[in-house]
Amino acid sequence: MNETFKHGERVVGVLDMVYVVEAGPFNGNSGPFYVVRQPHHTHHHIVNASTLRRPTPAYEVGGTADWEDDRLTLIAGPFKYGAAPWWVTEDSHGHQDKTYVRDMENYQPPTPTPETFEYRGVTYEVGATYEDREGDRWTLEELPVDASQGCVWKLDSYESAAWESTARIVERYGPLTKVES
Predict the structure, then answer these.
(1) Model pTM?
(2) What is the pLDDT of residues 106-164, one digit of tens each?
(3) Would you state the CATH architecture of domain 116-179?
(4) pLDDT per position as a tens digit, 41-79
(5) Digit-coded pLDDT (tens) for 22-51
(6) Phi/psi at 177 (5° precision)
């Protein structure tokens, strides 16, 4: 059975040609088809549904994918052998090997690592909310280079953010305790 694509969705056809779906699927004499166009073009084409697929996701180091009965972690790449891209991967047993993109399924991008820094033994995270000793809530909106340098702290009861050093905020209003959401 063929995949179903929506209007406006990017798809890949024969010879890795990229198209935008304009309409379909329709039932033709030769099977289901779609009306497509190339991005940034206005000429429309009819393409057999069986030749279309979703684009391969952009793989990156730290992402994971299924291969046979195992979950792999991508640790280096991409590399090419001819036109076939491959990655150095690590399986659940710690073994590392070469794995072709065409052989991997269910790719998941890496989980983003929060931006953090430490001051006086406390780790502060960008985007996190902290409560001061008076119960006011502060959100760290931008990382400083170090604790004495200014950064963007937003006092949640005000509309605007303050450009203050973490050291000054902690001295005046601390301790700051992270509020779990």
Answers:
(1) 0.44
(2) 889 888 778 888 888 888 888 889 999 999 898 887 766 665 666 677 777 776 666 77
(3) Roll (2.30)
(4) 888 999 999 999 988 778 899 999 999 999 999 999 999
(5) 999 999 998 999 999 998 888 899 999 999
(6) -115, 130
Residue 158 has a CB neighbour count (10 Å cut-off) of 9
Instruction: Kindly state the tokens that stand for 170.
Output: 């902690």
| Domain ranges within the chain, ordered by starting residue | 10-51, 64-108, 116-179
Q: CA-CA distance, 50 to 45, in Å (whole number)? A: 15
pLDDT at 144: 67
Q: Which residues of 26-50 are buried (b: 16+ CB within 10 A; e: fewer)?
A: eeeeeebbbbbeeeeeeeeeebebe
**What string of H, E and C letters represents the secondary structure of the chain?**
CCCCCCCCCEEECHHHCEEEEEEEEEEECCEEEEEEECCCCCCEEEEEHHHCECCCCCCCCCCEEEECCEEEEEEEEEEEECCEEEEEEECCCCCEEEEEHHHCEEEECCCCCCCEEEECCEEEECCCEEECCCCCEEEEEECCCCCCCEEEEEECCCCCCEEEEHHHHHHHHCCCEEECC
Distance CA 137, CA 120 (A): 20
To 5 degrees, how large is the angle CA 110–CA 112–CA 116?
Answer: 145
Inter-residue contact 22 to 35 (CB < 8 Å): yes
